[in-house]
Write a structure and sequence with these properties.
Number of helices: 5
Structural class: alpha+beta
Distance between the termini: 39 Å
CATH architecture: Alpha-Beta Complex
Strand content: 15-25%
Largest sheet: 3 strands, antiparallel
CATH topology: Sufe protein. Chain: A
Strand order of the largest sheet: 1-2-3
Helix content: 40-55%
Radius of gyration: 14 Å
Length: about 140
């Protein structure tokens, strides 16, 4: 379990200096939009699949600190992962978010959201990019 101060530092670092925040105009990238009905969060994910692996993933959009940092951490975590590995990460992430069983080692920095369940109104913020990758996987797999 991460130290509470480290959690805050990770969230703020990924919010102020997000990784992989970039628009991809390349038609080989699958673009998925996710937005919230209750706040400003509106994120586009850009995913490049190659041989059932996420070769590259970026995001862009307007979002709160939790959504932006969650998107940054997620893109870092998913790069280079196979679809099966991504599905396992999604399962573990939701397990953590729902205060259920999960593998902390798999989630790495994403564990900074392990107490988000205590703030029900922030769960949507922490899951918006993950719902986006689920949507992208469904779209990718339906085209195979």
């Amino acid at each position: 379990m991460l130290d509470p101060n480290l959690k805050k530092e990770l969230i703020m670092e990924h919010y102020l200096h997000p990784l992989n925040k970039e628009i991809k105009e390349d038609p080989n990238y699958l673009k998925v939009n996710m937005n919230s009905e209750t706040c400003i969060d509106n994120i586009d994910l850009y995913i490049l699949f190659e041989n059932d692996t996420i070769k590259d993933i970026t995001f862009n959009g307007e979002a709160c600190a939790i959504s932006t940092s969650a998107s940054s951490i997620m893109t870092k975590l998913l790069k280079g992962k196979t679809i099966d590995e991504v599905k396992e990460l999604i399962k573990n992430y939701y397990g953590m978010i729902n205060h259920e069983e999960y593998n902390e080692d798999l989630l790495e920095e994403a564990c900074c959201y392990d107490e988000i369940y205590k703030q029900q109104n922030r769960i949507g913020c922490a899951t918006i990019p993950w719902k986006g990758i689920e949507k992208a996987l469904k779209e990718y797999e339906s085209k195979k």
